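Q: What does the assembly look like in three dimensions?
Context provided by user:
Components: four
Sequences:
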Amino acid sequence: MSQFSSAVQETIDRIRADVSRLHSELTRYELVVWTGGNVSGRVPGEELFVIKPSGVSYDELAPDNMILCTLDGRAVPGSPGSDRSPSSDTAAHAYVYEHMAHVGGVVHTHSTYATAWAARGEEIPCHITGMADEFGGPIPVGPFAIIGDDSIGRGIVATLDGHRSKAVLMQNHGVFTIGKDAKDAVKAAVMCEDVARTTHIARQGGDLIPLPQDKIDALFDRYQNVYGQRGGAAEGESK
Amino acid sequence: MSQFSSAVQETIDRIRADVSRLHSELTRYELVVWTGGNVSGRVPGEELFVIKPSGVSYDELAPDNMILCTLDGRAVPGSPGSDRSPSSDTAAHAYVYEHMAHVGGVVHTHSTYATAWAARGEEIPCHITGMADEFGGPIPVGPFAIIGDDSIGRGIVATLDGHRSKAVLMQNHGVFTIGKDAKDAVKAAVMCEDVARTTHIARQGGDLIPLPQDKIDALFDRYQNVYGQRGGAAEGESK
Amino acid sequence: MSQFSSAVQETIDRIRADVSRLHSELTRYELVVWTGGNVSGRVPGEELFVIKPSGVSYDELAPDNMILCTLDGRAVPGSPGSDRSPSSDTAAHAYVYEHMAHVGGVVHTHSTYATAWAARGEEIPCHITGMADEFGGPIPVGPFAIIGDDSIGRGIVATLDGHRSKAVLMQNHGVFTIGKDAKDAVKAAVMCEDVARTTHIARQGGDLIPLPQDKIDALFDRYQNVYGQRGGAAEGESK
Amino acid sequence: MSQFSSAVQETIDRIRADVSRLHSELTRYELVVWTGGNVSGRVPGEELFVIKPSGVSYDELAPDNMILCTLDGRAVPGSPGSDRSPSSDTAAHAYVYEHMAHVGGVVHTHSTYATAWAARGEEIPCHITGMADEFGGPIPVGPFAIIGDDSIGRGIVATLDGHRSKAVLMQNHGVFTIGKDAKDAVKAAVMCEDVARTTHIARQGGDLIPLPQDKIDALFDRYQNVYGQRGGAAEGESK
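A: Here is the predicted structure of the complete assembly.
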């Protein structure tokens, strides 16, 4: 028998299905190799989130082996999948959910081009209108931090809190993205790699034309607000 | 009951099917990520065109959720799919159909290499015979223009009207292509990214050998005319 | 009723099936976009070869729409598929079959990296053991020649006749490869793009270590001869 | 009737299935073209290993056409598949199994970016945390050695014995990786190409930020040891 009310259980089941399925976007867009990336989603209204199990191949993911965690990053005992360990990045996801109340989804990848910028510790400048839409300016670099305590989570929050960007390049490491839900965070991860790649390749050929700040602002405002009135930016298609 | 004669309705249904299906070429050739690109097709003989709905994943496209629009870019009330918004790029497509009578299809993408040239505001020079066949010379750059009025549409028309090229690189933005029908415009989008990529990579390794103008002219004329006598360049295979 | 003896007809049917199926290797390895590449195969013992029809999508290829041609590049009247035009590159394939008796297969692509070397008119130097195995040295550049007469065919033959390489980079154009049969020529096209890409990327990072000529010779001899004793190089796996 | 006890036969059958199936990871991650790469796995407790047959397409691999070999690299007479030749790289695999008792799997590829570093004879420096996890530092370069005697095997062992890295770049040739079993070696091959590509691309854009040695050590120790206590690094997900 579930330890949750049937309404909460239904929500948990939906988030399990979403989080499981959304990993296929990471493989579709080649943002990950082997088991090196993960998606999580907050259970709305609860102090809970759902995340990928550690070391399980993307082919084997299913709603029932996703892991339900409390905001300290521990699996809820007795819940499906809780016999396995959650992703080794769970502590970072948990820290974000605990400290950024508006965040409903977190994604971590080592996608190639974004990680290349991260290895140089260089933010991705905003030269493309689609990047202005989605990120509202440059994608910033977060601190160097290694796994084992809450330093990765703290670095993500310190960099993204109050920033327009939904993506942060963790120095020498990879990318974390946030969103209003798991799908929105996955979209940010997909777009982050796309703009990292396009901007890298553009720059190989010479100097880029600057996008004026007022145009960046106009694009970002329209995408977040005008679109927002019709159901939210995540459903829009302004790029 | 349809508001159109059965002959017109049949044509509309065919264009809906074509436009829906042709989006799979954008994903097959990796010209788009997430929902960031769109195809439209004019309904021959009518002041109508069919376009992708906004924010719908490529996996979910079907003839019935394509949106039938009038040349002012508005969905035809009561037609299938008209409960959703058409692509946010609809105004640009509509402007092209209204001002370029020979255009039967329009495609918009942010394909990586083409957008990289666009971010530098640099036209793609013509060094490859297949590019001479399809584009008849360089692929030009259009003005910087942002979404919200008809400035993107005007920029496309001002650049392509009277130009050999079926593709324009909109500065800091992405690519628009035109064609005699939707399939022809999709082919131009596929070829545009292909020549953008090949020319970029070629130039990384050193100087390119110029293609003499008379050879470019001969290739373009043959592809457009000789082939045209046997059913049109879009059916040819001269590259 | 077939115009050929049943034994010849059986051979023709086998070559039709091979040539049709082998196009899927061009798409699998992303050597082609749209309809821009083609495979042909000689009918052993006959003055005939089988080639892709012009302008037909790779999804629609089937043994019965391949086109049987005589060595002047014309479809055999009344044979299946002869109501369509053969590939616009048929004249070049035909010229090769007519002038190189040992060639049983020809492939043409505009694969990205190989075409990039061709746009610079630069041969691909031999720095990788797998390239020494397959090509026995550099991949040479053929002359600039445009479609419309036999100049492409002559350029291929003039460059490859007596050369170790099965691939030629036609200047500003693309690649032609030859082989003992269609599969062998497809393998050469796949390997040509692979070594074009690897050598390009290697050189971006600095100077390459030369492969001594005697090592290249030893690798090529072993692959062609030692392997040949067990059924031919095309079946080997020395790379 | 099998020449092995039923327990050994069962183990051999399992390794045949694993080795056959794991080749699909080489194609999934585009580490190989045509037939140019191979996986082998030791039969635990026996002086035997299982390897890909020579020149067989990845589409046709099946447990029963994998080849069971003794540690001198010869097929076991009468075993399934022994009518075909084992991979032409079998001697190198055999040498590794004979001289590195802890190795349970070997993989060979010519994956693009890793081979590019190999063509320059340049080790891949360690600037990414995921590389520190998996390889514990740079990926070293082994000697130039050509097929035909045991010089490739000796070069692999001389380079990797006592080294943290599970991957070696054989100069002007390609990559060999080792692991506790075939899956672990495949993971190393996938990760090697991933870090080769990311580091190459990162360096194209400017200088990389060094990873301090003590951080590399901490990451490697944690991944190998902390994870090891819960079932081994190969099951972990620390990147």
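Follow-up: Chain C touches chain B at residues 33-36, 38, 54-55, 85, 87-89, 110, 112-113, 115-117, 119-122, 144, 146-148, 171-174, 200, 203-204 (CB under 8 Å).
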